[in-house]
Amino acid sequence: xxxxxxxxxxxxxxxxxxxxxxxxxxxxxxxxxxxxxxxxxxxxxxxxxxxxxxxxxxxxxxxxxxxxxxxxxxxxxxxxxxxxxxxxxxxxxxxxxxxxxxxxxxxxxxxxxxxxxxxxxxxxxxxxxxxxxxxxxxxxxxxxxxxxxxxxxxxxxxxxxxxxxxxxxxxxxxxxxxxxxxxxxxxxxx
Length: 190
Fold this sequence. Notes:
One of its GO terms (biological process) is positive regulation of canonical NF-kappaB signal transduction. By secondary structure, this protein is mainly beta.
């Protein structure tokens, strides 16, 4: 038996966490073929395909409005470093794919940010890459959300937050339901 000091170091595996949402997921059961809350391991050279064709896609979405292959994800290593990344490619001729509000047409691809929102049609997928070292495998972990992923709690704030003054969310809530007009105050008066 090998001692603890002589045992091989375990490599961590890059894991792509994906949280799925569709407004009619309960009625239509569009995610019924996805394995939620289980890590799945894929070979590093595999292309993870999402779509409605069960003969081609590993991740099947049961919806006639989804393309046979909607999009694909592939692991790669950047030329200038050792970090592992994913690229996402739109495989649908009919539907544009959005990645953090950037539209991808048919066969367009980009590097997947470490955390991003992917969407097409009514589908919302929050993706988060947990970095690892293994160049042989990667894992996926799927979750199901009961609420829209476009709520503030999931998206990073795109508005600057002032050092002093009103937060943007308070400003917008007052703009919708004004109670009183905001008064501008010089910072020397504080």
